[in-house]
Structure prediction request, 353 residues.
Amino acid sequence: MPTLDFERERARFLGFHAEHEPQWRAEAAAYASQLQRILSSAVPGCKLEWRVKDAKESLRKFSRKYRAALEESGTPYEIRHYLSDLIGLRVVCLYEDELEKVASTVRQHFEVIEMTDKVSAVEGTESSFGYKGLHLDLRPAEPGGGEASSGSAFELQIRTVIQDSWSVLDHKIKYKKAIPGPLKRRINVLAALFELADREFRQIRDETELEIRQAPDESEVEPGTPDAAPRLGRDVASNQLNAFTFLKIAKHFFKEFEFEPHKVDGFVDDIHAWAPDITRARFNHLVRNHIGTVKRYRQFLEEQQPGGSFNPYTVMRHCLYLGDRNLFAPALRKVSRTSFDAWLQAQALREKN
Prediction:
């Protein structure tokens, strides 16, 4: 039965915590596994963590938030009823607009007891910056919308990578309220920079996707065609070979291949190291003109060495080398160049005879 005796309730809570901690750990791990599964396709790239709140930290939280008011009003209490985050999970996603996607997906699988939107709370002020994220108090629900299952309730925090970083740093700032104005202002400026970083990170993603969609189609400009020169003059940026225009060309020739961003970035950087002034039209011309020959060479190698690797990047390296053997010699290792040259010579002799 609830009482107003803190020491008695403290002892009762410590016993309750010790008894249930193994169960909470098992439940937390199970919730984390379930969330990872349901979020993997809905919001890829999320990181998931879980913890069971330490008993002493739980008591400190109760004393800080609830004890004084309860005792002032003469309301008997059991400490455990005021702690909804004994089991805590955290989803860290990449972008701000993924917070609600995560929350929406989670709401389809768990019963929401309460939700706190710290993003709107902070953004609704004009002169305050600080911790942002979504907090949901949840409990597992039976499939089909039945009664809640017997599993424990838990708190789920949803943050971006940048919000999570600011939260860690924010906790290291020892004094934030009763401090001189200039120091408080510096803390606010720092928090605002993190908020700006979150926004810029999302906008960079959006503009990257827009650049890829708007990159000229590889067939738009061919060297030697009547409209090539005028377009070059009108739209220099569209003629540059960069990660976006490379992708438009590469995906035309290799429709089923998954081009990973970091590999694209590195490969295009390598091409510029070999040929600093190369345009997308020149790259497209080299690949288009030589890909048939290179694919025949790939077939020859696969017949000679079943199971060998000759991916689209390797195909394009050979196309570049075949187009200009001096300029693009570094695109292939010496052993690869020697093998390719020998095959080309054999093909030339076969055609001659």
